[in-house]
Structures are given as structure tokens and as C-alpha cells.
From TrEMBL:
It comes from Streptomyces lanatus. Transmembrane segments: none annotated. It comes from the Bacteria. InterPro entries: Amidohydro-rel, Metal-dep_hydrolase_composite, Metal_Hydrolase, MTA/SAH_deaminase. This is Amidohydrolase family protein. Residues 54-414 form the Amidohydrolase-related domain.
């Protein structure tokens, strides 16, 4: 029997250019798939009344180290340099599979609660072969759509992040690909989280890129952030190695040389920008407009909850304000009017949804409310005092709404949040992540006194 859900009479921001915005519209879901988006639909279905709600495609977070949910806010004032020491050299080596499971479960539920329906889990915490299985179990149990990006171990900063000579173990990556991702059509898909030139010697870089291509999985890599990586010229180096391609997502990109932007654009690469982290931790200016100028479709990402909030509204606002602050300051200095090509609030919604799906390689199934795509849908309560009255629905989402307004969350046609409450064992997830925190702090203490 066909299962149908009808979202009735919402203000629909489809993010599909052919459908556009419906001030009053219905969205019909059939067996997990969007069947129709029209002003009025009648169907024998479970009806969710969307009166006073803004209906959007779910947000896509294109880079988050979900394993860090157990150590939320341990590094509130950290710079990127501090982060390497405080997180990658201190906490990461202590992580057990149980910690990764707890953090991935709680972190993925945190995403769903905030309207993030697709997540790229940048999982560089594979200290043993049990770690990837634990990470995947956490994602799977949450019900989120995710790309699990298999990363290196993190048992020592010196071994893994400075001219590293250690390749991500190909046999284990192949095992994970074969065990969990024999099809690329599932709710969970796979990628490879690589470290790249400067962080690794060239042989390692070449081997990791070859591994991803052998297994036909996308590559994600941090580039051009802060003092350190900004000097590496990582994309130039990748270009010299002949490794650039459309299967690669470049994260941060704050200190690209102009020719590196051109190389990324010409090779069909994609871009993930983590604005709050970049502004706060010293990575550099979030280059949203720069990416757009090169014809790229930049996406947004959360990165680390050790230091920034885990929701997309924060990222949208951080990128929007930073971009405009920079342009305003430049124009003031040059005594020129601001250009009319300034970034808009509506562009930010596209960045957080459709562009994210493009970057995660999942635009065929998510990122817009398009008939034929999987049903990843979010409803925002626009009757709340911080959102009403609505004049511009896109601005209401990007500039007024917050996590408390995320009322309904549907992934692949399954309702994960209803009437403002997650349909999940939140108490268990919280307990697990608290136990993980306690275990990690005790291990840190023990190591410190050893
Ligand atoms: Zn990152």
C-alpha cells in the first residue's frame, strides 16, 4: 500500500526554480518520495496542517566532525592552532568506539532537531577498525541522510597532521565500502575524508586520492584555512600532482590564490564554507561571494561543536553578515557605493539547501522540493513571535528563525520531528553522550597525571 503524507496549506519555498515559491501550497509525499508540489492537492493521506508554517527543503551540512558532540564547547576560545593541540592531540587519541557511537547518534539527532536533514560526517577518528562501524551505527540509528566520510586515525597529531607518512588504511576503507555501502542509493552514502598536501607527504596524498577513485567515492579535504594551510597552496599542489577533479569538495578555501579558485572551478570541484568557525577561529573570511564569482555553488557547514553552535541558522547569519561587512568596509575605504550584487538573504537559503545537496553529490535526491526527489522536508513555525508577521518568507527563515521554530522534520518520507518534538529516544542519546564526556575527561585526567 502506498503511504502518503500531505503537507497542507504551508508557505512553500521549494528552492526548485521551476516551481518557485507558493504562498499557499501543498506538498504530497508518496512512499518517501515527493510526488507533487502545487497550490492545492487532494489525496487520501495523513494530513499535516501547515497553516502559518514555512515549508522548505531540509538543510544540508556539508562538513561536520560529528564525533566531537561529546566534547561540545571544550574549546570555546580556541584558534585553529589551539584546536590542533586541544582537540586533535588531546581528546581525539582518547576516543573509543563507544564515544564515537554516542557522539554520532547525539550529533545526528541534534542535526535533525535543527532541520538539517543531510549531513557530511567528516569522520577522522578511526583510531581502531571498530571506530568506523561505531560511527556508521550512530548515523544509521538517527535516521538522518548522511555521507559518511571515512578519515584517518587521530592517535597522534605529529603522526597524522604534519607531513604524515601514514595512508588511510585501504583495506579497511574497502571493507566499510563493501559492508555498508554496496549501493549508492541508500540513506547513507560514503566518501573519503583526506588530509591533503602539506598535512601529508605526496605519496600519501596520491595514494588516498587513488583509493577514493578506485572505490568511486567522493573526496573531501580542508584547504587554505589560516596561517598554516593558507601557505601550503594545497590546490596548486593537487594540480601539480594531477589530482583535481569534480569528485572533490574543498572545505574553507579562505586563503586561496586566484589561480586556485580558477583550478577548483575549472575542474568541477565543490566548496564547503564553515563561516562561524572561520570568523571565530582565524581560518579567514568565509568566501561565499568569491566562490559565486567563480561560478561555483558554495555550501555551508558547521565543522566543530567544540567551538561553535551546531545549527544552520548560525552559519547563514555568520556568512551573510561577514560578506556584507567586508564589502561595506572596502567600499567605504574606496569611497565608492556598495555594488548591487551584494549577497542576498534568499541566496543564503539556496546555499544552505540546494547548494549543499550539490556539494554532497546528492542533488538527484535532495536539496529542493522537486517531484521525484526523496522527501527531506522541514516546516518552520512562522507564527512564533520571533518570526511573525512574515513579509518575505526566505528572509523569515534566514534572518529570523532559529532552532526553536523547527517544528516538523521529515527525512526520506519519515517524520523525525513532529509538533516541535523529536521522534527519538532523546534521553538515551543525551545519557550516552554525557557518559562519553565523563569517560573522555577521566581518560584525559589519567593521561595528564601519568
Ligand atoms: Zn573541519
Amino acid at each position: 500500500m502506498t503511504e502518503r503524507i500531505l503537507l497542507r496549506a504551508g508557505h512553500v519555498l521549494s528552492m526548485d526554480p521551476d516551481i518557485g515559491e507558493l504562498p499557499q501550497g501543498d506538498v504530497l509525499i508518496e512512499d518517501g518520495r515527493i510526488a507533487a508540489v502545487r497550490p492545492e492537492i487532494s489525496a487520501d493521506a495523513e494530513v499535516l496542517d501547515m497553516t502559518g508554517r514555512i515549508v522548505i527543503p531540509g538543510f544540508v551540512d556539508t562538513h561536520r566532525h560529528t564525533w566531537e558532540a561529546s566534547i561540545r564547547n571544550v574549546a570555546p576560545d580556541a584558534t585553529l592552532d589551539d584546536y590542533f593541540v586541544d582537540i586533535l592531540d588531546t581528546f581525539a587519541p582518547l576516543y573509543t568506539p563507544e564515544d564515537v557511537y554516542a557522539a554520532n547518534l547525539a550529533g545526528a539527532l541534534e542535526c535533525l532537531n535543527a532541520g538539517i536533514t543531510t549531513l557530511v560526517d567528516w569522520s577522522h577518528i578511526n583510531n581502531t577498525p571498530e571506530h568506523p562501524d561505531a560511527a556508521i551505527r550512530g548515523l544509521k540509528e538517527s535516521g538522518i541522510r548522511a555521507q559518511y566520510a571515512y578519515g584517518s586515525a587521530n592517535t597522534s597529531l605529529a603522526d597524522y597532521w604534519f607531513e604524515s607518512k601514514i595512508v588511510i588504511p585501504g583495506d579497511d576503507v574497502r571493507r566499510i565500502r563493501g559492508t555498508y555501502f554496496s549501493s549508492d542509493d541508500g540513506l547513507l552514502t560514503m566518501g573519503l575524508a583526506t588530509r591533503g598536501p602539506g598535512f601529508c607527504v605526496n605519496d600519501v596524498v596520491t595514494a588516498e586520492w587513488a583509493l577514493a577513485r578506485e572505490l568511486d567515492i567522493p573526496i573531501t579535504v580542508h584547504v587554505a584555512m589560516g596561517r598554516l594551510a593558507g601557505r601550503f597552496g594545497m590546490v596548486r599542489q593537487l594540480n601539480d600532482l594531477g589530482l583535481l577533479g569534480p569528485d572533490t569538495t574543498y572545505v574553507h578555501c579562505c586563503y586561496f590564490h586566484e589561480d586556485e579558485w580558477r583550478m577548483v572551478a575549472d575542474s568541477g570541484g565543490t566548496v564547503s564554507i564553515a563561516p562561524q568557525v572561520e570568523l571565530q577561529m582565524g581560518h579567514g573570511w568565509p568566501p561565499v561571494m568569491k566562490a559565486i564569482e567563480y561560478g561555483l555553488r558554495p555550501s555551508l557547514s558547521i565543522d566543530v561543536v567544540t567551538t561553535v553552535p551546531g545549527d544552520m541558522f548560525t552559519q547563514i547569519r555568520a556568512a551573510f553578515a561577514a560578506e556584507r561587512a567586508r564589502v561595506n568596509a572596502d567600499c567605504w575605504k574606496a569611497n565608492m557605493p556598495v555594488p548591487d550584487t551584494m549577497l542576498t538573504a534568499r541566496q543564503m537559503l539556496e546555499t544552505a539547501t540546494r547548494n549543499g545537496a550539490h556539494v554532497a553529490g546528492l542533488e538527484d535526491r535532495t536539496g529542493s522540493l522537486t517531484p521525484g526527489k526523496r522527501a527531506d522536508v522541514v516546516a518552520i513555525d512562522a507564527t512564533a513571535l520571533n518570526v511573525a508577521p512574515v513579509h518575505d518568507a526566505a528572509a523569515a527563515v534566514t534572518l529570523s528563525a532559529d532552532v526553536s521554530n523547527v517544528e516538523t522534520v521529515i527525512v526520506d518520507g519519515v517524520i523525525h520531528k513532529r509538533d516541535g518534538r523529536l521522534v527519538a529516544d532523546v534521553d538515551r542519546a543525551r545519557r550516552l553522550v554525557q557518559e562519553s564526556r565523563d569517560r573522555l575527561l577521566a581518560a584525559k585526567e589519567a593521561k595528564g597525571s601519568a
